[in-house]
Amino acid sequence: MQFLPKTIPEIQPEILPVNESPPELVTFDVSGMKCAGCAKAVERQLMQYSGVISACVNLAVEVATVECQPGAVDAEALAKKLTDNGFPSQSRSGENQQEAEAATIERRGQEIRQQIKQLTIALILIILSGLGHVLGTKAPILSNIWFHWGLATLALLLPGRPIIVDGCRSLWRNAPNMNTLVALGAVTAYTASNAALLFPRMGWECFFDEPVMLLGFILLGKTLEQQARRRAASALQALIALQPAKARLVDFKLASLDLRSEELPLDSTSAAYDPQYIEIPADRVRVGEWLQVLPGEKIPVDGEICEGKTTIDESMLTGESMPVLKQPGDTVAAGTINKSGAVVMRATRTGKETTVAQMVALVQAAQTRKAPIQNLADTVAGYFVYGVMGISLLTFLFWYFAGTHIWPSVLLGHDMGHGAMGIGHGVLGMGNELPIIHYQSPLLLSLKLAIAVLVIACPCALGLATPTAILVGSGIGAERGLLIRGGDVLERVHQLDTVVFDKTGTLTTGNLTLTDYLPIFQNSEWDLNSDINVGNKQDVCSTIDGVSGRVDSKLLQIAAAVERGACHPIAAAILLEAQQQGLPLLAAEDFCTEPGLGVSALVEGRRVFAGNAEWMKEQGVAVATELSESLQGKTAVYVASEGVLLGVIGLKDTLRPDAKAAVERLRGMGLRVMMLTGDTPSAAAATAQQLDLTAADVLAGVRPEGKARAIATLQAQGCKVAVVGDGINDAPALAQADVGIGLHCGTDVAVETAQIVLMRNALMDVVESIELGRATFNKIRQNLFWAFGYNTLGIPVAAGILLPATGILLSPAAAGAFMAFSSVSVVTNSLFLRRGFRA
Fold first, then answer.
1. Buried b / exposed e along 267-284 (16+ C-beta atoms within 10 A)
2. Sheet strands (E) in 546-615
3. DSSP per position, 726-771
4. Crossing angle for the helix pair 36-47 and 75-84, nearest 10 degrees?
5. Position 286 pLDDT exceeds 80
6. Percentage helix, strand, coil, to 5, in the chain?
7. Separation CA 555–CA 530 (nearest Å)
8. Which of 159, 361, 605, 673 falls 20 to 30 Å from 389 in CA-CA distance?
9. Marked catalytic residue, from 502, 516, 730, 738
10. Cα–Cα–Cα angle for 372, 742, 464, nearest 5°?
11. What is the pLDDT of residues 167-206, one digit of tens each?
């Protein structure tokens, strides 16, 4: 059955516009955020500033990214505004990235140390309070009510003071947060217990242990949460730490830097190890300067090896553990480690332009971009604390005025004395009475339920659900050379049903070789001086091997002269063949490239065209049908001048070794795999046959501007499309796709356009990036389900919904414990993502 790849119909669906003047991005480190409500408050404050287009705040990494009109926003003034409103902030603009990250790590370390100190005090108070209940009358001092009053007072003044102060300030600024809820609960419980202690005739019980345990559990949860968040951010910190601090600047003309002899051992006394050099900060190296790198040192900037031979450990950039051999002419990336030999390199990219700096920027940007699924959580978070305070008030009013009258049995309970643990309050609360059965006060019961509602609600879980999962997922990707640009990309990855591959340089190696050669010149005025005239042959095409390498030098020279003006694998292959034949390049000028068709130039005063059959047709050059058929399955480059066909060159590409396995894996994941190429249908068919792609899954003969239309056509049919490409021609399609996946070996424009960048340039990484995206998004959904489910179930239980039927009464301390560990569970669940992606 004949293979007939599809061509693209001439339709004009809407194509995504390209923003010619992108907005300015400003990044801030923001501290003082306690929950999702704080993050939402920071976003509101940023959006109120003139010139700000959008703002995105990440609670997990405490970073705010502001998109603003170019030159319209003063970053320092904006940071000061946030600081004045209770969220100490600092702009990252103009700072050394390593120093800024080191300062952030130190600040967070101090916060954790302070929390551990406060937690230690709280735990000591909890232990003393618990001993009073356990020992009872055996330790009169520990069971004395005034002793427990002292413990509760110390709990509020020492470990609880920062929480109470921050909670009150947040409420005063009209931006209540988690600390506001905890402060209201703890202070209310303490105040009610003081009233019971001072006015025993009211018949209330004292529960001084409630604020002690409540604050202790909250601090324990916050400490565990901070540690988990620190682990989640470890991958980015390791990536930033890759960037070297120093570089060894040398004069390459020095004789002492001749490293051409052999690799040098670490203990070598060669002059190469003692050159005249100046040690400077790596971020001050300029392009073109010469640097020396000794074994065991990090490559300071991106560059090219000039002298010496070594092996480089690139594992932190690509995830590949095996060192890579590097010789003169090979490129090296900043942050990789020189393993074996001393080398001299020339800097080609420095500062923020280096590969590792771009990776860090991509990962940092990814961690601040939200998934659309987070929008609901953000909307809820903006009103969450107000809603909880309202529910708490309604709980109090309901039970005090109605609930205790409808179900009077709920007032019957054990006087567990002080805090429901067996200490009576007695007259002035001496604590010597035995537990007795009594009726609780309706006011006290209503108050305890209202407090429980305040402290069980957890806005932190809502705020951490998405960013912690993205933090871990992007970190795993960075370790494996998979750079995913953000949560919105992860959500689109989860929705994908179609993956479209570019052919040349993506599914294939892009290293074309000349396989067929045909000079046709009998009607040409150009004297090709060839003794090979196959113009009257029936097969009209000879392979290079078939003519024992006797290719027509003049035609190859003409083709190479024209292709010198193009940047394409075809041009590279023709130029390489001319170089290997030892042919001098003809003088050429006035180059003109027509993307997807070919290139033209003035060669020896004549306009020469080199390109595909369509390009020839547009120039009025006839191409015989049998000539095209003879090059079936290969890429044909026709060369013509002044309306006359001079000849044709056939080239063939080789499939990447992992291409077929990647296609099969993607199909196994339920994805449709397609190929999109500007190559001829016959060449596309040959590649498709090796990959077991059907004709319906091949789009051939597509010009660059048509690639975006082809993707738009698929999207109009309801497909969620990912495009995998590496060249300039692929950039429009990458931008149009739901998810663009670019190979890092490709052009800068393709990498910039893509939403996922593959550092290893391996097609199996396409599979792994989609698997990682799906797994990360599933974690986000699990976290959000838990966060909403916890609050949806926990708040009614704390409000006493189970009390009439089951007698279950959730104490404020127990509610605080549930609240503290709910946010810990979200972060821990995100960390479990690493289990499925172990190296």
1. eeeeebeebebeebebbe
2. 588-594, 598-603, 606-611
3. -SGGGHHHHHHSSEEEEETTS-HHHHHH-SEEETT--THHHHHHHH
4. 130
5. yes
6. 50, 20, 30
7. 9
8. 159
9. 502
10. 30
11. 888 888 888 888 888 888 889 889 888 888 888 777 677 7
Q: Which residues contact 307 (CB under 8 A, 6 or more apart)?
A: 252, 257, 258, 259, 260, 328, 343, 344
Q: Residue range 51-73: average pLDDT?
A: 85
For 411-425, give the DSSP string.
GEEEE-BGGGSSB--
Determine whether 71 is exposed, middle or buried from the number of CB atoms within 10 Å of its CB (0-12, 13-18, 19+): exposed
Measure the CA–CA gap between 301 and 193, rounded to whole angstroms: 65
304 has which bridge partners?
331, 346
93 CB burial (10 A radius; 0-12, 13-18, 19+):
middle
Give the pLDDT of residue 263.
41
Please tell me the distance from the alpha carbon of residue 37 to that of residue 379, in angstroms, as a whole number. 10
> CA 302, CA 355: separation in Å to the nearest integer?
7
Q: Name the amino acid, one letter, at 792.
A: T
Q: Would you call 16 helix, strand, or coil by DSSP?
A: coil
| C-alpha–C-alpha distance, residues 725 and 506, integer Å | 6
Which residue type does 285 have?
A: V
Alpha helices in 369-458 (DSSP H): 374-398, 404-406, 442-456
Question: CA neighbours within 13 Å on the CB side: how many for 299?
Answer: 36
**Is 502 one of the annotated active-site residues of the chain?**
yes
Q: Are the CB atoms for 469 and 735 separated by under 8 Å?
A: no
| CB count in 10 Å sphere of residue 614 | 18
What distance in Å separates the CA atoms of residue 421 and residue 415, rounded to the nearest whole number?
8
- pTM, full prediction: 0.73
- pLDDT of the residue at 320: 67
User: Helix, strand or coil for residue 339?
Assistant: coil
Predicted pLDDT at 96: 54
